[in-house]
Amino acid sequence: MSTAAVAARRALQQQRTRVLYRKALRNVLSWAVHRDIFYVEAQKMREQFEMNKDLSNLETIDRLLYEGESRVEKFQHPDPYIVPWAPGGSKYARNPPVPSEVITVVGFEF
Description:
Belongs to the complex I LYR family. By secondary structure, this protein is mostly helical. It has helices at 3-31, 35-51, 58-74. The protein has one domain (1-109).
């Protein structure tokens, strides 16, 4: 395998690792909404990532990434936590615009 191919594969692995870590963190947050529980679980997960950070065998890294992605999908929360003001959150678009059927009277005095 050429040097450029190895570099491209490593870059892809780094990207997959970042995406996996962020997905796993979001999944942990869905299961443990309270921050004190979340911090403990996030630290455990970080330790698992740190344990394998010095691996250099490309096939081993690919296998671990596949196992991690499969694990995240398997333990995906059925009702994931969504920040209230984000699309799909409970406060998103809570104040929709006034419907066109409603007539607005400007300058009306009693």
